[in-house]
Amino acid sequence: MFSIVAAISFLSCKKDENKVYYTGGTPPALTANPTTSMVLLIANKDNPAMTFNWTNPNYQFNTGISSQDVTYTLQFDTTGSNFTNPNIGQKSISKDLSVTLTVKDLNTILLGMGLAENMPHNIEIRVRSTMTNLSAPLYSNVIKVVVTPYLDVVYPVPAKLYITGSATPANWMAGGDPELVSQRFTKVSASKFEITITLSANNSFLFVPVYGDWGNKYGFTGANNTNNVNGDDFMPNGGDMKAPGATGSYKVTVDFKTGKYSVQ
């Protein structure tokens, strides 16, 4: 009996000795160049905008320094949001300890955060390091810059925009029809249009820049009526878009900066 207990105790000790424990790491130290105010210009879109460097976090285990691959993520947020913004900007970098963003890279990140173009914004930037499955995150110091993004669009912005289709009060337009003001969007920014209109359940619609002209249209990026009815991607000459499943008044927003529309 004694020999069996002793054997179990020995095996238990051996098992504990073989466990690998995470013992910590060092938050990466982040530097950037430049850190002055920047006005981004589309003419310089391919030029370097900012270069970031950071130190290795040296993840430690009881067996020594980690040999796992480390992933780094540059995170961008507006000053005061403390990186809690649901539209936080992120750029992932695998293994490397530096990255240079072009003017277009940085501009795309800022516009993706929903920031207005041609206005200065106070931005905070940090780097997050993680191991496998985003485990053991460590965060660097925060760098602050003021950046003015430019308007960049997925598709050229038309002068006007209309909605037409079986889901709309006027049904599908015919070629040569005169302008129907009641189905014309209001341009609310340099790239965005909005209209509030009654849509009939499960019917279809499209967007056109000239009412009565089928030479140009905007529709869903996939097959007809397979879109998310609350909003999706659109493209020139795309497929019919399906309306929500309940007839009612909806605000339709079309943004040529993102190539997306919403139905609320």
Query: What is the CATH homology-level superfamily of the largest domain?
Result: Immunoglobulins
CATH architecture of the largest domain: Sandwich
Give the fraction of residues assigned to helices: under 10%
Figure out the total of helices: 2
List the helices and strands in order. Answer: HEEEEEEEEEHEEEEEEEEEEEE
Walk me through this protein's architecture.
This protein has 264 residues and is mainly β. The protein has 2 domains: 21-148, Immunoglobulins (Immunoglobulin-like); 162-263, Immunoglobulin-like (Sandwich), CATH 2.60.40.3620. It has 2 helices and 21 strands. The protein has helices at 2-17, 103-112, and strands at 22-24, 30-33, 38-39, 48-54, 60-61, 64-65, 71-78, 89-94, 98-102, 121-130, 138-139, 143-148, 162-164, 186-187, 192-199, 204-208, 218-220, 231-236, 241-242, 248-255, 260-263. The strands form 5 sheets. Strands 3, 7, 8, 10, 11 and 12 form a 6-stranded mixed beta sheet that branches. The chain has a 6-stranded antiparallel beta sheet with strand order 14-15-20-21-18-17, with no helix packed on it. It has a 3-stranded antiparallel beta sheet with strand order 1-5-6, with no helix packed on it. Strand 5 and strand 6 form a beta hairpin. The termini are far apart. Mean pLDDT is 91; it is low at 1-14.
Offer a few descriptive terms:
single chain; 264 residues; mainly beta; Immunoglobulin-like; 6-stranded mixed sheet; 2 helices; disordered N terminus
